[in-house]
Amino acid sequence: MTDQIADDRRQKLDKLRELSIPPFPPRVPRPEPIAALLGALNERKGKTVVAGGRLTQLRDFGKLRFSHLVDRSGGIQIGFQRERLPDFWANRKLVEANDLVVIEGELGTSQTGEPTIWASRVVLASKALRHAPEKWAGLVDVEQRSRMRWVDLSIHEAARAQFMRRASIVREVRRYFDGLGYVEVETPILQPIFGGATARPFVTHHNALDMQLYLRIAPELYLKRLLVGGLERVYEIGRVFRNEGISTRHNPEFTMLESYEAWADMRDVMARVEGLFAALCDTVLEGRSVVNFRGRDFDLRPPFEKRGYLELFAEHNDGLDWFDAPRVLRRAHELGLKTEGLPHPKFANDVFEATVEHALQGPIFVHDYPVAICPLAKQSPDDPRIAERFELFVAGMEIGNAFSELNDPIDQERRFLAQLEHKDDESPSELDADYVAALEYGMPPAGGLGIGIDRLTMLLTGTESIRDVVLFPLLRRQDVAAPGQTATGEAAP
What we know:
By secondary structure, this protein is an alpha+beta fold. The protein contains 15 helices and 18 strands.
């Protein structure tokens, strides 16, 4: 690390220690949030206050110094005057921009009327050994902002506001489900058999038990075990992991809300989703309902449009019947989709994704999916080929997925076995007999829901890329070369 530290800052660090000024003291005076001080400016003007944060924009005028102090709640100007700080003044240049400090002083204003704390005491809380990037030119590369999120947050107020907004979204989602009598639970992240979705898992090994385990791709099957146990309304907000590609919509590690409600079905869950969006409009959006996302305005106030999967498939593929395997296969070939070795339901759904999803601007519920691509959903009583499932789309992006949950253990075992007949990297390698056994004890009729918190945050904040709503998205290590490249990203010789 030493060769990366600015030489002048290391020299100042050494000088501080020579002067017995601790650069990283064990404790400092407890500061108040800057926003609270600004909110009480008129009442507390002329009184002594304590604020803490990071110094920025340092300007030295000889007998007078100004800087800006920033904490997570806001920022305020700090005035340093020689007559107020006789002991500090001789060593003032040892405290500089990017250092963390606690300021005690009189709350007031400058000659131009700007709120200012006139410092009477300066406590160095943490000496920064690196210079901060210049605010506008020093950290504008999107990838570098993601790699150095701590710097991004420290210099970009908008970045801090973005992640505070994400926290408020999660808080309001919890508040909504808690208010409906759901119980928040935690289920295993390490699972002996992965399931609950179709995705390639991350694989690991438990040494003591000498057992292969998987990072969960969904918490679904464990949450439904809890319905069997009598916890009739449960939800979990937690990380799930899918060993797949990275894009503006995908990060291999992401946050999922899943909820399950006994005695409910797909239609009840639709109402829950609309209720959730109404609540988010009232709270997170502060009474507004229109958001601008990907260059368009979307009104998130329910009710939402509802369309059938098969109807949309035919509409965007010249009347093609999803169940007509030979014609759908030809259509897949026309689109350049992979079909070799794939069963009809897989490549037929790929045709839907390629031709329909981009047109689903919404908000729109797409419902009644073919049962062949819904191994955990109940069949429709009106058509055994159809499952009671819906997905919510906005701007061509899936936001949520829901079922009337399959609770017939015999049918569930049959569908699991059918999955194994066409096994690939995205399917479990064995039948989850433990889950089937749980269903044999009796699971009540239920409606289940999954919503990606990251995508929900993208939508509510008008953010284009999932990277910008995940604090630490997965990125390739800069010191490890990609295949065919050097560690710097250049083509290998």
